[in-house]
Structures are given as structure tokens and as C-alpha cells.
């Protein structure tokens, strides 16, 4: 936990350890939202930093629909990881509902 000062213009300085933990040193943009009377700060990935990440598929002449499917899968996996980090850093608990096994009578 860190104590920060809020300036007259409403600005704060995020401590270097927190910036490094959130990878904010590389990212210049973050989102801020209020949740349960708490400010939540999350880095935003610059879309330009992703340029060229799919070049290995394009070189193999992979069809565009397959590349799009891979992009969707990667986005879904990233969303799951982001949610897991959210749960780890919050007091929220993951609720897992398992289907009941049907028994034949």
C-alpha cells in the first residue's frame, strides 16, 4: 500500500513499484474506473505495439479467416487472463457452477 498526494489539478504520481508491476512504464495509457468506492487503474495496450505479431502466419500463406480465428482465440485467452488477475487482486471469489450428474432410475 502506498500513500500518494493529489495535486490541486487532481493528479497523482503512481509509485514506480506499482508502475512496474502494472507494466505502466511501457504503456502511456491506462483506464481508471471506480468500483466499490475504489479507483481501479489498468494499463491499455497500444494497438500499434501489436503490429507485426501475426506476420508468421501471413508468411505461410494462411487464409485470412484462419488468421481472424486465431486473433479471436488470442483475444479470448487474454480476457480470461485479465479476469484471473482481477480476481487475484480483488476480494472477489470465482463462482464455479458444475452441472449435476444425472442418475438413471
TrEMBL record:
Residues 1-46 form the SpoVT-AbrB domain. This is SpoVT-AbrB domain-containing protein. Keywords: DNA-binding. NCBIfam families: lp_hng_hel_AbrB. GO terms for molecular function: DNA binding. Gene3D superfamilies: 2.10.260.10. Pfam families: MazE_antitoxin. It comes from Candidatus Curtissbacteria bacterium RIFCSPHIGHO2_01_FULL_41_13. It comes from the Bacteria. Signal peptide: none annotated. Transmembrane segments: none annotated.
Amino acid at each position: 500500500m502506498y500513500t500518494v498526494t493529489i495535486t490541486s489539478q487532481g493528479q497523482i504520481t503512481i509509485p514506480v513499484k506499482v508502475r512496474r508491476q502494472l507494466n505502466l512504464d511501457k504503456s502511456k495509457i491506462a483506464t481508471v474506473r471506480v468500483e466499490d468506492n475504489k479507483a481501479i487503474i489498468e494499463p491499455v495496450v497500444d494497438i500499434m505495439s501489436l503490429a507485426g505479431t501475426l506476420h508468421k502466419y501471413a508468411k505461410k500463406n494462411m487464409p485470412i479467416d484462419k488468421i481472424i480465428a486465431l486473433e479471436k482465440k488470442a483475444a479470448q485467452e487474454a480476457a480470461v487472463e485479465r479476469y484471473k488477475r482481477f480476481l487475484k487482486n480483488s476480494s472477489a471469489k470465482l463462482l464455479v457452477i458444475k452441472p449435476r450428474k444425472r442418475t438413471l432410475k
